[in-house]
Amino acid sequence: MFKRSSLRKSGAKNIKQQVEKQPLLQSIFEKAYDAIAVTDDRGTFIEVNAAACQLFGLSHTALIGRILADFTDTEFDFAKICFNVQAGSQQTGKFDLLRPDGILREVEYTLTLNVVPQRHLMILRDITDRKKAAEDELWCQRQWVELFSEVTLKIRQSLQLKEILRATVTEVQRILQADRVLIYQVLPDGTGKAISEAVLPNYPTILDLEFPEEVFPQEYQKLYAEGRVRAITDVHNPDNELAQCLIEFIDQFDIKSKLIVPILQNLNSHQQSESNSQNQLWGLLIAHHCDRPRQWVNFELEVMQQLADQISIALAQAQLLENLEEIVEVRTAELKDVNRNLHQEINDRMQAESALRRSEEQLRLITNALPVFIAYVDDQQQYRFNNKAYEDWLGKSPANIHGCHIQQVWGEDCYQRMQIHVEAALLGHIVTYENEIVLCDGNSRSFNITYIPHIDEQKIVKGFFSLASDISDRKAIERTKDEFISVVSHELRTPLTSLHSALKILVTGRLGTLSTDGQQMLEIADENTERLVRLVNNVLDLQRIELGKFTMEKQVCKAADFMIQATEAMQPMAQQHGVTLVTQPVDIQIWVDSDYIVQALTNLLSNAIKFSLPGGTVWLTAECQQASQVLFCVHDQGQGIPQSKLETIFERFQQVDSSDSRKKGGTGLGLAICRKIIEQHEGKIWAESILGEGSSFYFTLPNLPG
After folding, report:
1. According to the model, what pLDDT value does residue 471 have?
2. CA distances from 72 to 43, 67, 125, 492, 499 (A)
3. Nearest C-alpha neighbor of 673 from the set 705, 699, 695
4. Is the confidence at residue 286, as pLDDT, over 80?
5. How confident is residue 636, by pLDDT bands cut at 50, 70 and 90?
6. HEC profile of 395-433
7. For the PAS domain, which residue ranges apply (predicted)?
8. Rounded distance between C-alpha atoms, residue 76 and residue 84, angstroms
9. Cα 275 vs. chain centroid, distance in angstroms?
10. DSSP 8-state class, residue 243
11. For residues 281 and 306, what is the distance between their CA atoms, to the nearest angstrom?
12. Torsion over CA of 383, 388, 389 and 390, rounded to 10 degrees?
């Protein structure tokens, strides 16, 4: 021991003497931003700089002589790493650093062996904050992807332009965290006004305010019509070359920074040549930052441009609907005039047909420019109008399709999937569904299809309008989003587990005693880490179920067995909340995977207990509803659920009251997992509730097959 200690001190002394002989190297060593350490073969610190002391949270004297393994987990083996690295070469890697004060940091290292014999150089960098910043950026981008998918879906499913614009500015303002987001429409006389707006309460509204022409002159309009996008960090910076009158105008609204994206109308389809494409400036999608200048990032610009393109599609759809209604009015007017004089009738019909042809020509010009299947089908399921997309994608011209039955156009297999929705539309219902369609090139694409009934004044269904939009890209985005959530959840699980374990050790007091306030803060951190671990596990469970990466091992089970098992598992939680848990087991045999059904029951019982008041009761019951299925019910006496939330609570991350759910430890995934499990058993799950009186969650499971 004496010799080894003497050798260690001698080696430290020699290195220190060499460094002292070189003042420049000594200055670099001490003032380097990165932590620098010299170690022996065991990883014992021989010499360290000030940055290393700061990283490890120890003084120079306290750190010298300590072994690196004292601060790392068991997976980090310094001797093994040195053995695998050739002399004079470098090794890079990462390890989790647990400081004496309990702080856990992630460290990236570069190891150079034998800078002098048996002495090794380590460069250490704390990458904890950098990794968190990267994760925050990924989260922000995922929020933008979800926003784009949500707004795009609303545009595809709705023809109400005001609703689409209101949803767009609201969601953009929320995700972008801007002070104001508005849609500005350019009027024919060169002026303009804001027609939709989302603004924070402490800033003045601009909605319906008309802008004078001098603040948005023709040369500006021309540039935006050519697709110019402007991201202005500081409106008062002279490099932006903003007109003085414009600066004075926007100053009255406290605008410090702005992002402007043009909304172009009548975009031509991809089949037309570039030389024939013409864009007309309809308006602008604008984001304001008012409390300080803001640097806009490229990803925000790209998503804003994509949303502006979706608004252009919504404008075209609204114009299409207006033209379709005009056609219906013209044809209805013809029927009212049948009792007129024959000569007058002929003249009127000729004029009407001429107007109809012009209207249909205009309609066809508009619809042919849209990459959407657009058609009108009569009550005999025969096509009376369709746009050029049918020819581009199906290889069938409008003339060949006119008068044909739907089944002739789409084929037997596709028609079987469409038939139930077609019949519903002819009964007067608006129908929206998704279908896989094989195009003329042999490729299969996903389409979102909407049928809008054409109902006359006598409430008779004359046919329906059909709109089919290609949603293959949105499906790809959803798959990318699901993969992203899965990857992030997997990446979070390991560091969260380590963090949770470290907090558990600290809570036990084995590493020292904290003050009462410190112990309370530590327990709060431990509880929230446990909730985060539970959230990650729920995300992974839901992802695995949705992707089909699990196996249902169904067998004959007694309902009473897993009802008792779920009740016993939740009894400690019920006692902790002061809630009485009552179950009424029934001796019914069913065909299920008992483990998954127990998971669904415990999720439902957990929700019922969390949202019950102390002294309340939660019931778990089951009954044989009919020969083919069993009805289960979890009933509580909690605060109840609004009728508007009874459907959405089964979606991912949907909660009745997010603030209340956070207090009670909810993740917003339990009911989504329940629904997936029940649906995999060919059952159905739903909720019924009365505010102030409690809620009941029902689901059905199949009885034994006959």
Report:
1. 84
2. 12, 10, 15, 19, 13
3. 699
4. yes
5. very high
6. CCCHHHHCCCEHHHHHCHHHHHHHHHHHHHHHCCCCEEE
7. 21-75
8. 13
9. 38
10. -
11. 16
12. 40
Looking up tokens 């490729």 gives: 443
User: Is 414 within 8 Å of 437 (Cβ atoms)?
Assistant: yes
Q: What is the pTM of this model?
A: 0.35
Q: What percent of the chain has pLDDT over 70?
A: 76
**Which candidate, 284, 309, 51, 304, places its Cα nearest to that of 182?**
284
Cβ-contact 467, 435 below 8 angstroms: no
Spatial contact of 371 and 389, defined as CB atoms under 8 Å apart? yes
Q: What are phi and psi of 465, to 5 degrees?
A: -90, 140
- For residue 130, the model assigns a pLDDT of 82
CA gap 24, 93 in Å, rounded:
29
CB 616 within 8 A of CB 609: no
**Chain centre to alpha carbon of residue 24:** 53
Structure tokens at 1: 């021991």
DSSP 645: G
pLDDT band (50, 70, 90) for residue 635 = very high
**Sheet of strand 617-626, all strands in order from the earlier edge strand to the far edge:** 580-583, 617-626, 629-635, 694-702, 685-690
- 524, exposed or middle or buried, with CB in 10 Å at 0-12, 13-18, 19+? exposed
Contact 620/566 with Cβ under 8 angstroms?
yes
| E strand map for 266-386 | 280-289, 372-378, 383-386
Q: With beta carbons less than 8 A apart as the criterion, state whether 29 and 49 touch.
A: yes
* Element holding 461 (H helix, E strand): strand 461-470
d(CA 425, CA 207): 38
Distance CA 299, CA 231 (A): 12
Determine the Cα–Cα distance for residues 10 and 1; give it in Å rounded to an integer: 14
Give the angle subtended at the CA of 617 by the CAs of 613 and 622, to the nearest 5°: 135
**18-26 contacts at long range (C-beta below 8 A, 24 or more positions apart):** 18/116, 19/47
Average pLDDT, integer, range 311-319:
77
DSSP for 284-301, written as a single string: EEEEEE-SS-----HHHH
Residue 61 CA to residue 110 CA, distance in Å, equals 24
Mean pLDDT score, 133-153: 70
Amino acid letter at 533?
Answer: V
pLDDT digits (tens, 9 = 90+) for 486-495: 666 666 666 7
Structure tokens that stand for 103 in this block: 């702080």
Cα Rg, the chain, nearest whole Å: 34
Ranges assigned E (strand) in 490-554: none
Output the six-digit token pair for 644.
């508007």
For residue 686, give the 3-state DSSP assignment. Answer: strand
Q: What is residue 392's predicted lDDT score, i.e. its pLDDT?
A: 81
- Give the Cα separation of 100 and 223 in Å (integer): 61
Q: What is the mean pLDDT of the chain?
A: 79
Q: What share of the chain is helix, strand, coil (3-state, %, to 5)?
A: 50, 25, 25
Point out which residues pair with 376 in neighbouring strands.
385, 465
Spell out where 439-541 has E strands: 444-455, 461-470
Tokens describing residue 271: 């089949």
Q: Compute the distance between CA of residue 84 and CA of residue 79 in angstroms, rounded to an integer.
A: 9
DSSP string of 111-124, one letter each residue: EEEEEETTEEEEEE
DSSP for residue 698: E
Cβ neighbours for 479, distance < 8 A, ≥ 6 positions apart: none
